[in-house]
Design brief:
alpha/beta, Rossmann fold, nine-stranded mixed β-sheet, 11 helices
Length: about 270
């Protein structure tokens, strides 16, 4: 008897702008193609919203303000609420959702977990991320150093957490941005576990170091980064891309662990 595959939806939030992230997400998901069927939905560009029949959802990063009222927002949030409600009322076959960067900001705003604020300047590079006490114990980050490193690219951020709301939702903060001793600015929240099945990161765990190095080595890309952030930042980023203890570890850990855990959790009742 051939076991039926699970269904995985990739929600493309890039609004038809060129990006590397969607390809990287697809490549990670393809490692599991014997167990899942993958469908991509262009949420912001074509207003494509999946239904609630999928088992696993990965919602990508993207450009622009996470607070803008766009036509896709209402049906997108209605879907997420439907999945959330399903998990509360269902004893098995939970729906598993991962939110990246832009999607993470949208959901943190929806759940009112804190303030989504525009940064004074863009955060960009391969940067250190520190685990919280909850993050140290969370299986999603198990195996990563503390701090671990990931690609950070954002104009917006989640700060000033509403801890009472976190407690009401059963949510927890898993990681914070780098410690900056020279500036008195609140550290942004970099990862949140909304529930056992909903989790998200402000950073990009899907970033693949090999393709990133090729992309950032292009003269046009290099000049854009140097012009915006300086040559020292560019050189630091290229060095960290090559480091086996940095983004290659993050790439091989977070999303693969999320998908593996989701598949195991969904299939477990069948064999129990």
């Amino acid at each position: 008897m051939i076991e039926e595959k699970l269904k995985l939806a990739i929600l493309d939030m890039n609004n038809d702008e060129p990006n590397q992230g969607l390809r990287c997400i697809k490549e990670i998901a393809d490692f599991f193609n014997k167990e899942v069927d993958i469908t991509i939905f262009n949420v912001r560009g074509k207003k494509e919203i999946p239904d609630a029949s999928f088992d696993i959802y990965i919602s990508s990063g993207g450009p622009g303000s996470p607070l803008e009222e766009e036509p896709w927002r209402k049906p997108y949030l209605e879907l997420m609420q439907q999945l959330w409600d399903h998990n509360i009322t269902s004893s098995d076959s939970k729906k598993h959702v991962f939110f990246i960067c832009y999607s993470f900001q949208v959901m943190c705003n929806y759940f009112q977990l804190g303030e989504i604020k525009l940064r004074k300047s863009t955060s960009f590079g391969v940067l250190p991320i520190h685990k919280t006490k909850k993050g140290i114990k969370d299986p999603l980050l198990e195996g990563l150093n503390d701090p671990f490193y990931a690609v950070d690219s954002r104009d917006w951020q989640l700060i000033q957490p509403r801890l009472k709301v976190f407690k009401e939702h059963g949510a927890s903060i898993l990681s914070l941005e780098k410690i900056r001793t020279h500036v008195e600015l609140e550290r942004a929240i970099m990862a949140v576990r909304f529930s056992g099945e909903f989790v998200g990161t402000q950073f990009h765990p899907e970033a693949d170091p090999i393709s990133m190095k090729v992309y950032f080595s292009l003269e046009e890309t290099k000049q854009k980064i140097v012009n915006n952030f300086g040559e020292a930042k560019y050189n630091q980023m290229m060095e960290r891309i090559d480091d086996p203890d940095k983004i290659i570890m993050t790439y091989g850990t977070i999303l693969p662990k999320f998908i593996t855990a989701a598949i195991s959790s969904i299939k477990q009742p069948i064999f129990s």
